[in-house]
Amino acid sequence: MPRKVSPRATVCVRGRAAAAGAAAFAAAWMAWQLRHPYLATDSLAYHLPLAAAWAQSGHPGSLIGAIAGLPVASYPVSSEVLVSWVLSVSHSWVVASLWTPAMLGVLIAGALVALRAWRVPPLVGGLALAAF
Q1: Mind listing the pLDDT tens digit for each residue in 71-130?
Q2: What is the pTM of this model?
Q3: Closest by alpha carbon to 100, among 45, 32, 50, 30?
Q4: What's the rounded Cα separation, in Å, for the pair 16 and 116?
Q5: Packed helices 78-90 and 48-57: angle between N→C axes, nearest 10 degrees
Q6: C-alpha span between 69 and 123 (Å, rounded)
Q7: How many CB atoms lie within 10 A of CB 94?
Q8: What is the mean pLDDT of residues 10-33?
Q9: What does the alpha-carbon distance between residue 108 and residue 79 come to, in Å, rounded to a whole number?
Q10: Of 50, 91, 109, 118, which sees the most CB atoms within 10 A?
């Protein structure tokens, strides 16, 4: 006599398959970033020059004029301080290529946790994240 599979078990398997697919996509994207790094204008004009200057000087968070006439040194710099620390430790620019996919993963995970805490149905939450 065949066993019945509960709908809850099916949802659990689908959720795990979706998580595995998302993890595989993230790993493939990071591998692609290592082979073909993409750094936008904002990264080259502001974020990386600050991180590189702090890594070279050894004073993260110090005021450095990255763009003449624009006081970008006064902007929140938590991410740049972390990137400069990793640049200093690793002596490599690889972290700059992997930072964006990692932060996107943190953003998506935070959104999923928040949507689950608000008891948003999974399909609606997934569609909201896809639309974002």
Answers
A1: 776 676 788 888 888 888 888 888 888 888 888 889 989 998 999 999 999 889 889 888
A2: 0.69
A3: 30
A4: 16
A5: 50
A6: 47
A7: 14
A8: 84
A9: 17
A10: 50
